[in-house]
Amino acid sequence: MEYKELRRHYQRYRVLRWLDRHPAWLHSLAHWLYDHTGWLRRFFMVIASQLGFLKVLNPFKYIKRLDWYIIKKFIGTYIFSIALIISLAVVFDVNENLSKFTSYHAPLRAIVFDYYLNFIPYFSNLFSALFVFIAVIFFTSKLAGNSEIIAMLAAGVSFKRLMRPYMISCVLIAIMSYYLSAYVIPHGTVVRQNFEALYRNKQKSTSAENVQLQVGQGVIAYIQHYDNNLKKGYGFSLDKFENKKLVSHMTAMEIQYDTISDSKYHWNARQWKIRQLKGLKEHITSGARMDTLIQMEPTDLVYSKGQQETFTSPELHDYISKQIDRGSSNVVQYQVEYHKRIASSFASFILTIIGFSLSSRKRKGGMGLYLGIGLVLSFTYIMLQTVSATFAINAGFPPMLAAWVPNILFAIVAYFCYRQAPN
């Protein structure tokens, strides 16, 4: 008899012994349930076997005590370095802008909640790669200085296995960084820029001259002057072409964007005139006011510096697609920003490998040398991001490649550092 059958008979024997001490009707009911609910027992056995399979997929099963120890060190040092450097940045920014805040009578609530509450996550995420690199070098050098890494390696933990908690920490940081840059920070940037325009005299572009854009297939719009504060344009015309022939020409003295409409693209035209062209014949209609749908928005007409940072990633993707369909040339900086958000999230993996490879060996002189190397490499990474973005905007460099060039170059450095570190 197999062990499973023996165990099942033993469990049944214990149940019967328990029932013998109770009324006869309970004994009969138990026998009936056992004989007529075999399908239910089999169902629960299948569920139990599936739950046992799901335990294999549990990610926490592969995180041991050593991993938790390093993850806590990594995340704790990362948060501490952010808090330290950003606090210094806030102190310097307050010192620089205090006179402007007082001269423009900025309320304390707006300074704290509209400006600095959005200033901190913006710059924290902007220099996230620097904070990751500093955190890795700082606490790894301390582990190496205390001979903890030597003890781990002597206990049979390989160099590759030792990288696991570092990579797990990088996954958490990369997800947080992308979520902030793609969904949270853009909304805060809008509030911060509005505050700067009110209380720091930081001028924003509020008008545009001689704007021409394609708003549909074969439909060209032109505005002589557009005022973004009033959401109003002057000297408007709309031309529609079919087979490269002009079939409709609309003009309006003024055109006003409907900001209270439930849907987009609603405009009110005043003193309008439409010329319908059919061969040699022409039909003209005119009026004082007309509500119309034109596939353009105020954001399509006025560009301000840093406007791409105010869009979430889905909004940025839609805006890029729309501008490309319209044949706009002012779209490269938006493409660079879209790809940079993804590339910057992966930078934590690359810089962590470099930092761990450099600082995992115990050397004389402490961590000062590694911190210096870390600062140089981190600022080099940020400089490469800026330079490659400038090449993309001004020299026709592919935007996606411009965003990933720093990662590609530093990935090569990380590969050689990782290969040499165990030696």
Q: N- to C-terminal separation?
A: 57 Å
Q: What structural class should be given to the helix and strand makeup?
A: alpha+beta
Q: Low-confidence parts, pLDDT < 50 over ≥5 residues?
A: none
* Total of DSSP H or I helical runs spanning 4+ residues: 14
Let me know the average pLDDT: 81
- Global geometry: extended
| DSSP strand tally | 6
Physical arrangement of strands within the biggest beta sheet: 1-2-3-4-5-6
Helix content: 55-70%
- Tell me about the biggest sheet? 6 strands, antiparallel
Strand and helix order = HHHHHHHHHEEEEEEHHHHH
Query: What is the radius of gyration?
Result: 33 Å
Percent in strands: 15-25%
Short description:
This protein is an alpha+beta fold and 423 residues long.
Report on this model:
The structure is a single chain. This protein has 423 residues and is α+β, with helices and mostly antiparallel strands. The chain is built from 14 helices and six strands. It has a six-stranded antiparallel beta sheet with strand order 1-2-3-4-5-6, with no helix packed on it. The longest helix has 39 residues, at 65-103. It starts with a helix and ends with a helix. The relative contact order is 0.09. The model has no long low-confidence stretch (mean pLDDT 81).
Task: Spell out the key features of this protein.
63% helix; extended; 16% strand; alpha+beta; six-stranded antiparallel β-sheet; 423 residues
Task: Explain the layout of strands and helices.
Layout: H1 3-20, H2 24-36, H3 38-56, H4 65-103, H5 108-126, H6 128-145, H7 148-154, H8 159-162, H9 164-199, E1 207-216, E2 219-227, E3 232-242, E4 245-257, E5 266-278, E6 281-293, H10 298-301, H11 313-325, H12 332-359, H13 368-395, H14 399-420
Antiparallel strand pairs: 1-2, 2-3, 3-4, 4-5, 5-6
Helix pairs in contact: 4-5, 4-6, 4-9, 5-9, 6-12, 6-13, 9-12, 11-12, 12-13, 12-14, 13-14
